Amino acid sequence: MDFLSDEQVGNILNNSDEDNDEEFLMLETEETSDCEDNISVHSDEVDVISGSDDDDVPLSQMRGNALRGKNGHLWSSVAPSSSRTPQRNIVSLQRTPQAIMEGIRDEKDAFMLLFSKPIDLIVKYTNQEIGRRAPKYKDQRYTNQTDSIEIQALIGLLFFSAINKDNRKSTKEMWSLMSTPIYKSIMSESRYQFLLLCLRFDDKDSRHKEDRFAPIREVWTIFINSCKESYKPSAFVTIDEQLLGFRGKCPFRVYISSKPDKYGMKVVAICDAKTYYMFDAIPYIGKGTEAKSAADYVTKLADSIKGSGRNITFDNWFTSVPLADLLLKDYKLTCIGTLRKNKREIPPSFLPNKNKKPLSSQFAFDREKTLVSFTPKTNKSVILLSTMHYKEEINPSTSKPIIIDDYNATKGGVDTFDKMMHNYSTARGTRRWPLRFFFGMLDQAGINAMILYLKAKKPNTPAKKYRSGFLKNMALQLAKPHMKRRLQSNLPRELASTIRAILDIPEEIPEGEPPSKLQKQARCVLCPRKNDKKVKIVCTKCKKPMPRLKTFGKSSRKKLRANRRNAEKGIRQKNESSCDTSIATDTPEVYPERDEQASCSTFDDNNLEIPHTVILAHMPVSEMPGLMRV
After folding, report:
1. What is the DSSP letter of 338?
2. Distance of CA 441 to CAs 36, 258, 263, 488, 496, Å?
3. Of residues 301 and 49, which shows the higher confidence score?
């Protein structure tokens, strides 16, 4: 390897400060500004304020402090003498348009701001798939065409499963009597399964076979554009990779050992380091990926903030000296990142060495670039590269360089976003990778919508504490129009009552005496319909026909008396929780053929809620509370 002579080194160091005659203003960091409104917004028309030159530093001193990398890259251990902050640290910010903030009235508006156009496309392509599959079904009750209201309800149901941690449960378990009634209130189990089976995101007939990402590219592109247009990030952003866990067949599935899911589809995203809003992302699809290298990912993701003076934080997979120069020269962006120790620009003295003292730091400078090597313990070094810092600054309380503190404060944007996605995930088990990617888009949209809503309506509310409540409100608002439409159809009485209770719609109960049609024998609402049992007793609360004791199964009088004594004994016990359990245990033995519980209830002297079925089983007809003869 050829090394430079001392004369060549001196010529290079003399020309190291050719760009210092520019304007300088102070960059307000997150520590000095609690909100985006406090950050100064500068236009391009700013008076030029000249900085100090480095001519007062003797050439012999700079030459004596020169450091050289393995590839001959020159560094200086002397920081450039300057009394002002460099111009590259001026941040030009644009606030989120006021019209967007005013258009967000509730949680649903924030979500639909990002996902309304994708839903329209999903409805279009899903109906095409339904048209192909529906003729093959004998039962046509669940194979009708869908619309945007039903797809919104489907998305709301998926978010409810994420909130209740039911996304990995089977549909049979979700729609069982032991589960929450919200699922069956939104749609039936068969319709839910059919919609997920037919959910499509592109036209299968006109799909580009050469594009591996074609099955969902159109919907993804519209979603990402909506995320860009709806939000303007703060002064610090983070670029990192996230993994959508998937173990099925996919042409671009990857393995990342450091991620919790290990296997899946990789997405390189850029997020706001302060609010964790994801405003751009690029999926990795193998050979057809737009970005061919780590530097390509950074430059493509930085297009939306080009020329704004923001700072980008990334890890050692992205960081390189050429990339730092490119971002500063062509994009007017600064960066902070850890540097891998195999980079040839690093001087050998910056590498781990057992002779270095713990908590010691080394600095090197090359024009706008600052290199620091920190030794946290013996024979270990952490190397960082920054184009935002320009001094040898060390935190006296921790003995760490300020570069490391700033890196730690801004590096977690994408990781925090990914963690929030995993806490409440809509992802269900599937073998179709486009559907798994769609679940990931829902999780991303849920977080972004929450950030937009909090910024518009509750700016002082912590995002992490409000996430569960936001998702509940948003899911219910998405499903409410479809649930109201279901009430207009012929639903079972109990299901209709459940939907009215969830939507807080009062049930219309006629006042006064029961209807005249109940003065004759009417079919019992609790007995199986196939038995066609007739009764003359109605409930004073719900006005529905209730059964006599003798209308239920063929149990012996001895067992009935025993059950009655056990029930009366349990009711007499005060402040004991076992009474309800004993009653519920005995009831199925008395009525073996009954399939469902009564929807109405009454209260005994101890203020214990007892179903009508229990009262009817263990008390004489004349003593039944809440019942009357017609």
Report:
1. E
2. 27, 22, 18, 32, 32
3. 301
Q: Where are the alpha helices (DSSP H) in 458-530?
A: 463-487, 493-503
294: CB partners within 8 A, 6+ apart: 317, 318, 320, 323
Residue 362, SS3 per DSSP? strand
Q: Which pLDDT band, with edges at 50, 70 and 90, does 597 fall under?
A: very low
Secondary structure, 3-state, 220-267: HHHHHHHHHHCCCCCCEEEEEEEEEECCCCCCCCEECCCCCCCEEEEE
Token pair for 310: 């923001």
Burial of 398 (0-12, 13-18, 19+ CB in 10 A): exposed
3-state class (DSSP) for residue 591: coil
Q: What single-letter DSSP state applies at residue 74?
A: E
Contact 476, 183 (CB under 8 A): no
- Per-residue DSSP letter, 451: H
Do 612 and 599 form a contact (C-beta atoms < 8 A)?
no
The rounded Cα 426 to chain-centroid distance in angstroms is: 9
Least Cα distance to 146 among 160, 159, 134, 158 occurs for 134
d(CA 319, CA 339): 6
List b or e across 311-345, with b for residues whose CB sees 16 or more CB atoms inside 10 angstroms.
bbbbbbebbbbebbebbbeebbbbbbbbbeeebeb
Pair of tokens at residue 578: 């076992």
Cα(106)–Cα(552) distance, integer angstroms: 50
Q: Which residue's entry shows tokens 């005013």?
A: 102
Which run of H or E residues covers position 384? Answer: strand 380-386
Single-letter residue type at 386: S
Nearest to 540 by CA among 509, 502, 508: 509
The yes-or-no verdict on residue 378 having pLDDT over 80 is yes
Place of tokens 């290298």: 293
At 497-547, the pLDDT tens digits run 999 999 998 876 555 554 444 567 777 777 777 778 787 777 766 667 776
CB 332 within 8 A of CB 312: no
The answer to whether 301 touches 268, Cβ cutoff 8 Å, is yes
Tell me the percentage of the chain whose pLDDT exceeds 90: 50
Q: Which of 612, 558, 624, 620 is nearest to 587 (CA)?
A: 612
H/E run at residue 594: none
In 382-432, alpha helices (H)? 402-410, 413-423
Q: For the segment 42-64, what is each residue's pLDDT rounded down to a tens digit?
A: 333 332 223 333 334 443 344 44
Which residues does residue 280 pair with via DSSP β-bridges, in sequence order? Answer: 270
Query: pLDDT per residue over 429-470, tens digit each?
Result: 999 999 999 999 999 999 999 999 999 888 888 777 788 999
Phi, psi of 376 (to 5 degrees): -70, -35
Backbone angles phi, psi at 369, to 5 degrees: -95, 140
With the C-alpha atoms ordered 507, 512, 516, 520, is the resulting torsion angle positive or negative? Answer: positive
